[in-house]
Each structure stands twice: as C-alpha cells, then as structure tokens.
C-alpha cells in the first residue's frame, strides 16, 4: 500500500514535503540515468556519452546540497514528529546513497575512458558479456528501488530486500570465468582488472538500491532494519 | 589454486558473506498501527511502581460521559504529559486526581484512583490534605493577593507544617530556592505576589505548591500564558522537581510534551488512546489517531 505524505491541516507543510519528495525523485532519476549512460558507454564504447555523464556529475552534487538545504528548512520550521520525522530523516540519509550512486556512474565513466583511450586493443566482446548481465540486474534492482521511493510501499520494499541476490551470484561466477580468461591469455589482465572494477561498482549499486528499500521500510513502519546481521549474531 | 583466483579470493569471500546475509535476512515487521476506529488504550498504561493507580475511571457531566474507562498509572519520579485536542478529557482526568471535579455540581466520577493504598474518591477522605498531597498549578498564574512571603507561608501554616516562625521562614526560603525564585525576590518578600512578572508568578505558584510537601504536582497548561524564556525556566524547574515529585502536565504544546515528559498519554474524545514513552510516541506512535494528532493531520 502506498504511503501518503500529505494530509496536514497546515497545507503549506504538505507543499514543502511534496517539494522535498519531488527533489529526491528528480535526483534518483538523474543518477539512474547517469548509471545507464555510463554502462552503455562502457559496453558499446560510446565515448561521446561519457562527456555527458561527466558534465552532469556536478548536477548530482548540487541536488544533494539543495535537498539538504530543504531538509534543514523543514526541520527548523515544522519540527516534524512521528512519520513526518521518519520520512525526513530517511530522505536525509538516502540522499547520501543517491550521491554515491552518482559517484559509481562517474567511476564507470572514468574506467571506460581508461579502457578505450589507450594504445592497447579494445576488450573482446566475450569479456564484456558478464558486465551486460550484471548491469541488467543492478539497473533492474535500482529501478525498482527508485520507483518505490515514489509510492513508498512497504510490501514492495520488503519484496526487494528478500529477493534472491542475483547480482552477487553473477559476480561470483563472473570472477571464475574471468580468471580462466586470464589463464588463457595473460594480455587480458589489464582489461579484466577494469572489468572487475566496474563489477564492483555494480555490486555497490545493488547495495545502495537495497539501502533505499531499507529506508522505505523505516519511513513507513518505523522499523530500523539496517545491519540486520548485528541482531542475528 | 591459481594466482588470479587467490587474488580474487578475499573479495570473493567477503561478497559471499554479504550474499548469504542478504539471503537469510528475513524481515518480520510488526505492522502494529492501530486503526482510527479502535478506541481501546494501546501501549503501557501501567508502571511497576505507581504513585497513583487509576482503574476504569469514568467521568460524567450530567448524563454526558467526558471520560471513558481510563486506566493509567502515574509513576514515581516521572513527568507524564497529557496531550489531545480540546474537549478530549485530559484536563478532566487531571482534575480527577485531586478531586477538583467535586466543585462541579453535575460531575460524577466512577472507578478507582488509588494513592498510598487509599481510593481518593472514598467518602472518608478529607480533600484538604489530599490537595496538599496532590498539588495543582493552573494555566494562569494565580498568586494570593498577599505578599510573596505569605503566598508561600499560607499553606504550611494552615497544614501545621511549621512549629514556629523560624521553621516557617525556612520552608519559605527552601521553596523559593527550589523554584529558582529566591535570588529574584529575596529583597521584596513583603511586596504583593501579583507585582511579580508572569513567569515569576507562575514559579511562585509552584513554590506555593511544593511548600506543603506534595507527592504529586498537577499542572494544567502551566506555560500557556508565559513567554518562551519563562516557559524554559518552568520546564527546567519541572526537570529538577521530578527527582522528588511525580508531575502530571496537561499541555497543548506537543513540543513541550516532547521536551519535558518521560511518558506521554494521548486522549481523544474521552478515551485514553495511547500511552508510551515520549520517545516512542513522538517517533513511532502505534495508534493512527495519535499519529494524525501529533503530525497535525487532524480534522
């Protein structure tokens, strides 16, 4: 069930929360787009797209600052409590995840530049195959997490968090495959290091997507389920 | 193991662990949010060491019920805040605690309100010592039209708490010091209490209350007529006094309830809806009505 943020008797507060929510969604859309573009450029050697990713990176940082500013204003003026407080706290925390997602896009963009702008030959397609699969998993996870940031649905967040970790499984098997490619031809090492770095970024993207879902759980139910392994041990 | 596989191993293990953790983490959420229609009290209404123990308190003004089946404990050394919209019964409940409702002719109280093993509504109870034991501070400062000294000395004198003038002086000085008024009024003890500022008058009323050694202090919106600085002084005073007394405060300022109280009780249309620690009520209220009220989504 979607969670409503509006309904305050003083409607200006509704407006301020809606503005904050929109800013969050805009930033989430931007970082999602950045990641997709960076991956596309990596897989298809589209270096012109890299320029766009790099140009838009400061926009992500600026949005983070603007959101922080909006949050400070709301805290000062409205003294929010209960769900309002949880929503604002969670937005304030998840904006950091969004900013780091933007950083991952920039990282992939940087690796793309070093991968293709050198005197060596470009990586073969079979080396890039795993990135395509992992990229799909990471983007699907992130898309679901971001869509849920819009409607703030507890069930959807739970479903995402309890879903099978395809990304991690794919990473394990990719590592094994890449190791065999190195053994076949040692000249692949340079490329494979870059590819593994991109894979690490994709793993991080998956982690951030799960964090976003954890914040939705906190906003809606008040349960702080981060670092659940601490309670388990 | 090949070299590259060895290099990959540490990271591999870390990721595997994370993967396992994710897979085995099952989230069991307590979807405890109670719907608006439920009017039974949620939360911990009782405490292990109650100073006042109220069970099934009902109050009627004529035939009209003003309070329904309220069961709530007031603990020792605690500040408990009553919040809720106007007409929800919080002041009515507060007045039940020292039988101030006796002054309203058509008012009828049922249920039990126990203090020190006695029901305060028992016919054998004398309300004068009862109201000394459970003192009250009102919304508007109401010092007696007497000197500052007499405002404090009046209670102890009629309750026979001082043997002589020396003891009475000591009670006056101690009470004024405890409320932080001593330094401000020590040179004008003979001047009328009404000549003090609003905040000072309210602290004078609190000093007057504690001069007769109460166990519980009831405060009915004690800061609503005061400026923010005087309000802060009263709040600081409450914080100090709660080491010796139980304090029950009715307030319309949610922020004040959040600032000063240890527990908060939310009333709605004569029902006690939710009781909990102040931290819980203001971060994770369980009842939908509580959440609607404190977040300003009411009506």
Record field, number of beta strands of chain A: 0
Q: Please report the distance between the alpha carbons of the first and last residues of chain B.
A: 70 Å
In the CATH hierarchy, what is the architecture of chain B at level 2?
3-Layer(aba) Sandwich
> How much of the residues of chain B is beta strand, in percent?
15-25%
Count of DSSP strands of chain B: 11
> Which percent bin holds the helix content of chain A?
over 70%
Q: Provide mean pLDDT of chain B, rounded.
A: 89
Largest sheet of chain B: 7 strands, mixed
Give the neighbour order of strands across the main sheet of chain B.
1-11-10-4-9-8-7
Specify the biggest β-sheet of chain A: none
Q: Could you describe the 3D structure shown?
A:
The complex is a heterodimer of chains A (233) and B (299). With 233 residues, chain A is mainly alpha-helical. Chain A has one domain: Phosphate transport system protein phou homolog 2, domain 2 (Methane Monooxygenase Hydroxylase, Chain G, domain 1, Up-down Bundle). Chain A contains 8 helices and no strands. In chain A, helix 2 (47-78) packs antiparallel against helix 3. The model of chain A has no long low-confidence stretch (mean pLDDT 92). Chain B has helices at residues 3-24, 90-96, 127-133, 148-158, 165-178, 182-185, 198-210, 228-241, 254-260, 278-283, 288-294; strands at 42-43, 50-61, 64-75, 79-83, 107-115, 118-119, 134-137, 216-220, 246-250, 263-268, 271-277. By secondary structure, chain B is an alpha/beta fold. The interface between A and B is large, with 41 and 36 residues. Chain B: Keywords: ATP-binding, Cell membrane, Membrane, Nucleotide-binding, Phosphate transport, Transport. Chain B: It comes from Nitrosomonas communis. Chain B: InterPro entries: AAA+_ATPase, ABC_transporter-like_ATP-bd, ABC_transporter-like_CS, P-loop_NTPase, PstB-like.
